[in-house]
Amino acid sequence: MTYAVRLWFDFISPYSYLALTQAESFAAEHGVRWIVRPIFYAAVLDATGRTGPAEIPIQRAYTLRDILRAAELLGVPLTGPPAHPFRTLHALRVAALVQDEPRALALAVALSRAAWGEKRNLEDPAVIAEVASGAGFDGADLAARAGGDEAKALLRKNTEEALAAGVCGVPTFEWNGELFWGHDRLDHLAARLAGRIGSPEPKAEALDRMPRGADRARSPYPRA
Q: Which of 2, 36, 109, 152 has the greatest number of C-beta atoms within 10 Å?
């Protein structure tokens, strides 16, 4: 049996990189067909009224150390991009242009690895074109088309669909409407596909109905 699973990601996320490095082997082991969907994470943050982890000094410091541990456990290189955060729009639009082609995952992996595993600048169209060519595409053509209306519309549509599905972070894996957020939730997805765990519904619906006992935004907690 083959399971179709959406893979929502943004190259800005080191956790997307970690997930992408595992995606091919995971698919082979668990019978998954990935539906590759790049999204613009900044738009997700804006829509949900949040700030990116890299924009909060204490969280940025923790995250950089966390991803180094995770990468070592997975046995994948992690050097970081030349700067972080960085603009991923051009690379995301290139990935969106080929998202339904057989080698879409290979391109997503290559672009993510270029940034996080090889310290290459994904803001440079020449770098994107070279990486795309190495993944078996006409890199120059894709890089040129990334500024066009088709690419912009595809990425916008992906992002809108992700928000409609309830995606609040990247990477997120979606199977039958159920979301699994984070590279470290691949084991949850595997267990769900194999039937080792059930759906959290309707118990989650009952929890959703719990009243909010305290609201920090309206009634700030006293200082310790």
A: 36
